[in-house]
Specification:
By secondary structure, the chain is mostly helical. The chain is built from 10 helices and no strands.
Length: 218
């Protein structure tokens, strides 16, 4: 009985800790949307929650640890948004244009979220600007790998061989990096108040059409 009570207490503590960490990351996301990357500090998050920085260290031992949690949450939201858009296409093989459009739509009104994940070294000079190896290996790569797994399966015929499946995956990766490149260009231009000369919507349509044709010809 004592052991069961101890287990229940341990479970409650773990659940409370997860909720607190989630609240901290949600607050960091809200500050990011309002004030940009530089506005997200331990002090600003703690102040918004009515906590002290010392209390925050109980959940995130450093700014880098909190930043890692923020990047993970932002990437989860991206992948969820992209998969939802892809699922909405049903059995259509015009998936890569949908991927590109969904990527753009997810970030166009929230460029600070995009910059926090993908443009750190280009735009921010602080020592924590680059994503560390642990975040890349344990957080980002598994999530993007899942996205490409889904696209590979959806773009491949049921009896497709390894070569065709590899081609489908490579094409999916190229479409995603093209969307990433477009948003990087837009983000850097926006940060420098130097709008690009081309129409965003026109560039988006060209990319989408090119990759939809390529997907249909697999």
């Amino acid at each position: 009985m004592v052991k069961k009570d101890s287990q229940r207490a341990s479970t409650r503590v773990a659940q409370k800790r997860r909720r607190a960490k989630r609240e901290i990351i949600d607050t960091a996301q809200a500050i990011l949307a309002q004030s940009g990357h530089d506005g997200v500090t331990l002090a600003s998050v703690a102040g918004q929650l009515g906590m002290t920085k010392q209390s925050l260290y109980h959940y995130f031992p450093s700014k880098e640890a909190m930043d890692r949690g923020l990047v993970t949450a932002l990437l989860d939201a991206e992948i969820e948004s992209l998969l939802k858009a892809l699922n909405g296409r049903g059995a259509s093989r015009k998936l890569l244009g949908t991927l590109i459009q969904a990527f753009y739509s997810h970030y166009v009104d929230n460029l600070d979220a995009f910059r926090t994940i993908y443009c750190r070294s280009q735009l921010y000079s602080s020592t924590d600007s680059k994503l560390d190896e642990i975040t890349l290996r344990d957080e980002i790569h598994p999530r993007t790998r899942h996205l490409f797994d889904v696209l590979e399966d959806r773009l491949s015929e049921p009896d497709a061989g390894k070569a065709k499946r590899r081609r489908a995956r490579q094409l999916a990766f190229t479409a995603w990096t093209s969307a990433l490149g477009l948003m990087t260009m837009l983000s850097v231009a926006n940060a420098n108040n130097d709008p690009i000369a081309q129409s965003e919507k026109a560039l988006l349509k060209i990319l989408s059409d090119v990759f939809d044709r390529a997907g249909e010809n697999l």
